[in-house]
From TrEMBL, chain B:
Gene3D superfamilies: 3.40.50.2300, Winged helix-like DNA-binding domain superfamily/Winged helix DNA-binding domain. Residues 2-122 form the Response regulatory domain. SMART domains: HTH_LUXR, REC. The keyword Cell inner membrane does not apply. InterPro entries: CheY-like_superfamily, NreC/VraR/RcsB-like_REC, Sig_transdc_resp-reg_C-effctor, Sig_transdc_resp-reg_receiver, Tscrpt_reg_LuxR_C, WalR-like, WH-like_DNA-bd_sf. This is Two component transcriptional regulator, LuxR family. GO terms for biological process: phosphorelay signal transduction system; regulation of DNA-templated transcription. Keywords: DNA-binding, Phosphoprotein, Transcription, Transcription regulation. The keyword DNA damage does not apply. Residues 144-215 form the HTH luxR-type domain. The modification 4-aspartylphosphate is found at residue 52. One of its GO terms (molecular function) is DNA binding.
Length: 424, 219
């Protein structure tokens, strides 16, 4: 690493190795990593047992059904470690989607390396993590030995490792010194242990040497093309709305104004009627412009979160409506705008057609999609082919490559569910 | 003058009909789709058709294609195309077979009723009406290495007005010069654009078309 972008000294390599505070901070970081490592190590341990079980089951044929789920779980567990490692070191880039069959999995180098990581991290990671947890506790109990040794039965008055039995005060203070020694050892070895614990992941969860990230690039290219495509569709929709709505209304305004001027110059009495029609047309133009603007990016989304915006929608809905949103952070503007549009249109339909007494909106972020569900207890029987509301919703959702399902049996209830890809 | 209007926006269609009827013109039919328009042309044999470029089903150039088809069915039908925006390709498609009895105007020109009516009459009488905006784009897009570059600024102004479909007298009036001066500019334009007098074609139209095509090829 070049000198000019070296991290602050405390991060990894203390510039003043004997400065205790710097040492302590480094050790504290390492301690945090070790404890975090225990989490993924336990996951890896469970995964290892499950892999063994699946492999054994495969010998009898029944395990083949478990393979796809197991592979997905393997990738998910490895993914957790990748995220953890990426937080405090160079980013660990994962492979694309997991293989689905046994044969592809065996042929897939990334999967083989993940299996290797599961085995090594399950054992090494757990042991290092537990030792890392025990060391500070040991040094603390030993350092405090003189405070508590006289209160325990003489046979149990031993240092943490039970090396010898203490019978007098000098011995007790010796144990205390031992505790301080343990503390020094902890400071000295913790960073190395954290690095060692992370080593299998950094080694095996990165793309194997020689892969040139071709699939990764292909995947990014595909998603990017899809995003651009959705963007173009969206622009076309806006252009059409502006052209067929607002622009035509404004042209009508100029035509009617021209006609009324002629009427005035002729001294005809039609002028007032023409002006009134011109005003109507101008008002329509404004209304359509508002609708277009709201459709591009609802102003409320510009300065508040999606959850807030949806709560606002629910609050202004004449049918009592509850919002249950369990999402954090922001999504792409197009996703938020579409989500807002879908809920707004769905609630309009609920109000106008369902006769419902209550409605609810559920928002979840799952499997890389933002899921929206709008339910009401009305009379049901909603039909996508009658009325433009539902067709408009489908168009917006599909422009983003999303999915839309509608269940509305006669007698209700009606449930509309939309899933919008949100790239994470 | 018997007129058929093809425009898919109802408000605009009715507004146009209202305006023209108030001016004492005979709007015999209005249509909202290309098919209805062609049926109306067949039925009423109008003198002039006013056609919107964007019409159902795809809202791209159905209007232009309907206008071309209407002129095939009824040669000599005067057509005034209205467009929400300037599209060079539409203008050249329309003018490919000569510019007599053709007009291409932006929709908002309709609001300037007097000028709109003048353009309407000019087209019905066998002339041409091209929107100043179309002409301006034509000049803006032309690259330095074309023949248009040989023209002086004044000659360009004259060509632009010719392209709009104005006659010599109208050009002289617009530029506040004498008829003789306009004549001199036009002769100079023809010479610079290599349009020989013995050609037999309408050199005014040829001059305009040459550069419509020029600009279109480059666009």
């Amino acid at each position: 690493m070049p000198a000019h972008d070296a991290p602050p000294a405390a991060a990894h390599e203390p510039a003043r190795p004997w400065d205790v505070s710097v040492r302590a901070r480094t050790a504290l970081d390492a301690f945090e990593h070790l404890v975090g490592g225990i989490g993924t190590a336990i996951l890896a341990l469970i995964m290892l047992l499950w892999l063994v079980f699946t492999a054994a089951a495969c010998l009898f044929g029944a395990g083949l059904f478990l393979v796809p789920g197991t592979l997905r779980a393997l990738r998910a567990v490895a993914g957790r470690e990748r995220v953890r490692l990426s937080r405090w070191g160079p980013e660990v880039i994962g492979p694309g989607p997991s293989p689905t069959g046994l044969r592809q999995a065996v042929a897939d180098p990334a999967t083989r390396r993940e299996v290797g990581w599961v085995a090594s991290h399950a054992l090494l990671g757990t042991v290092l993590g537990l030792v890392g947890l025990t060391l500070p506790l040991t040094s603390a109990t030993d350092a405090a030995f003189p405070l508590w040794w006289s209160f325990v039965p003489p046979s149990e008055a031993t240092p943490s490792l039970g090396l010898w039995t203490v019978t007098d005060w000098p011995g007790a203070f010796a144990v205390s010194l031992l505790g301080i020694g343990w503390f020094a050892v902890t400071l000295a070895v913790a960073p190395g242990m954290a690095r060692l614990q992370a080593w299998p992941g950094r080694r095996l969860l990165t793309p194997p040497p020689g892969t040139d990230l071709v699939t990764r690039v292909a995947e990014l290219t595909a998603t990017r093309a899809a995003a651009l495509d959705a963007h173009a569709t969206e622009l076309r929709r806006i252009e059409r709305a502006l052209h067929d709505g607002t622009q035509n209304r404004l042209v009508a305004v100029t035509v009617l104004l021209g006609a009324s001027r002629r009427a005035v110059s002729r001294g005809s009495a039609d002028a007032d009627a023409l002006l009134e029609r011109a005003q109507d047309a101008a008002e329509q133009a404004l209304a359509e412009l508002r609708a277009v603007v709201r459709g591009i990016l609802p102003p409320v989304l510009a300065d508040r979160s999606l959850t807030d915006a949806l709560s606002g929608l629910a609050g202004s809905c004449p049918v009592p409506c509850r919002v249950d949103a369990d999402v954090e952070g922001r999504f792409a503007a197009s996703v938020e705008a579409t989500a807002y549009f879908v809920v707004a249109e769905a609630l309009t339909n609920v109000t106008r057609h369902s006769g419902a007494r209550s409605a609810s909106v559920t928002v979840r972020h799952r499997d890389g999609r933002l899921w929206l569900r709008v339910t009401d207890d009305g009379r049901g029987g909603a039909d996508e082919h009658r009325g433009s509301g539902l067709a408009g919703i489908r168009k917006r959702v599909e422009a983003l490559d999303g999915v839309l399902t509608l269940a509305s049996p006669p007698g209700g209830p009606t449930t509309l569910e939309a899933g919008l890809p949100c790239g994470s | 003058m018997r007129i058929v209007i093809a425009e898919d926006d109802p408000l605009l269609r009715e507004g146009l009909a209202l305006l023209l009827r108030a001016e004492g013109l005979d709007v015999v039919a209005t249509a909202g789709t290309p098919d209805a328009f062609l049926a109306a042309v067949d039925e009423h044999r109008p003198d002039l058709a006013i056609v919107d470029v964007r019409m159902p089903p795809t809202h791209t150039d159905e209007g232009i294609r309907a206008a071309v088809e209407a002129r095939r069915r009824q040669p000599g039908l005067a057509v005034l195309v209205l467009s929400a925006y300037v599209e060079q390709a539409f203008a050249t498609d329309l003018l490919a077979d000569g510019s007599a009895r053709l007009g291409y105007l932006l929709k908002e020109r309709v609001g300037r009723v007097e000028e709109f009516l003048t353009a309407l009459e000019r087209v019905a009488d066998g002339g041409t009406a091209i929107d100043p905006e179309v002409v301006a784009q034509l000049f803006a897009r032309t690259r330095p290495d074309t023949r248009l570059d040989r023209l002086s600024p004044r000659e360009r102004e004259v060509l632009a007005l010719m392209a709009e479909g104005l006659g010599n007298a109208a050009i002289a009036e617009r530029l506040v010069v004498t008829d003789g001066a306009v004549h001199k500019h036009i002769r100079s334009i023809f010479a610079k654009l290599d349009l020989a007098p013995a050609d037999g074609t309408d050199r005014r139209v040829a001059a305009v078309l040459r550069h419509l095509n020029d600009a279109h090829r480059r666009a």
